[in-house]
Write a sequence for this structure.
């Protein structure tokens, strides 16, 4: 064998050895990421081996780890909402989980009390309602870490408080759904209905009440129809996650918002009751907002006259 052939053989053997070493290193890094099973571990592997032998499989496992991190029974609203706010392309599974969660009728993004929402609260909310006639009412709302209302205590005109407790069902495919409410010994059981895309499209109560949801092709809520046990219906029309129109029997209301650049959210500033194209009544809302974008004070007027002031304090 000539010196040239010997040299080529040595080079080939060395190259093969280096390639085998690289493969072994990649495999060891892959096994390490597999054992960790976290999003961070898979991202580290993909950064080190962007075009390796195991890259494609690692991407799939990284995506699965992302889903597992946010689609689980213990996920907290703050983490899930942050993911939805910062990621431009959502994992479809997480988007579905989030949609089913926040579109619960008792979620802090959706629940309405005196037309002023809770804006993603968790923990306890203490509320003082001061009426223009001088009377006062104290209310309390308790939300779990997913932002679902677990108890409300609302004081009536005569000072009597009505306490309602809520419980929820959970499954790994659909996430959370309202299961039961208990009030003064009366229990209402709720059953969810899902469409072929696993969106919850209805929640039916065994007392005859129900809520029906309509979504657009992007999976965004566009309409919510609330039917009470006695047959009364309330229809809410949504655009980009905000109510823009409400229909209650023959009454029609238009919702108006102002965008707050500090929080990146829209805040309700007026509800106008319409008769044809004419405004017959108007409620306006003036806020104080904390650094989390939550209302701490809301002054409400009706047709230019003070109606009530709501003050809130929060404890997580």
């Amino acid at each position: 064998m000539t010196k040239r052939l010997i040299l080529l053989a040595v080079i080939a053997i060395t190259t093969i050895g280096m390639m085998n070493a690289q493969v072994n290193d990649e495999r060891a890094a892959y096994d390490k990421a597999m054992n960790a099973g976290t999003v961070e571990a898979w991202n580290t592997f993909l950064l080190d081996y962007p075009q390796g032998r195991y890259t494609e499989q690692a991407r799939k496992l990284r995506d699965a780890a992302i889903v597992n991190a946010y689609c689980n029974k213990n996920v907290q609203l703050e983490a899930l909402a942050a993911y939805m706010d910062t990621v431009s392309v959502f994992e479809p599974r997480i988007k579905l989980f989030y949609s089913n969660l926040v579109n619960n009728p008792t979620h802090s993004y959706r629940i309405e009390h005196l037309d002023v929402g809770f804006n993603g609260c968790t923990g306890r909310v203490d509320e003082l309602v001061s009426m223009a006639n001088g009377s006062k009412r104290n209310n309390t709302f308790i939300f779990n870490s997913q932002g679902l209302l677990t108890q409300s205590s609302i004081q009536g005109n005569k000072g009597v408080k009505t306490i309602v407790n809520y419980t929820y069902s959970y499954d790994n495919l659909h996430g959370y759904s309202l299961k039961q409410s208990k009030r003064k010994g009366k229990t209402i059981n709720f059953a969810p209905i899902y469409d072929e895309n696993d969106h919850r499209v209805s929640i039916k109560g065994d007392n005859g009440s129900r809520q029906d949801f309509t979504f657009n092709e992007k999976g965004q809520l566009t309409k919510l129809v609330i039917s009470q046990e006695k047959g009364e219906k309330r229809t809410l029309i949504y655009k980009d996650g905000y109510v823009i129109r409400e229909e209650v029997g023959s009454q029609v209301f238009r919702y108006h918002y102002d965008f707050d650049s500090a929080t990146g959210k829209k805040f309700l500033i007026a509800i106008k009751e319409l008769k044809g194209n004419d405004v017959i009544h108007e409620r306006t809302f003036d806020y104080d907002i904390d650094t989390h974008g939550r209302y701490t004070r809301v002054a409400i007027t009706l047709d230019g006259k003070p109606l009530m002031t709501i003050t809130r304090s929060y404890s997580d």
Q: What stands out?
A: Helices lie at 3-36, 39-48, 55-70, 77-86, 92-102.
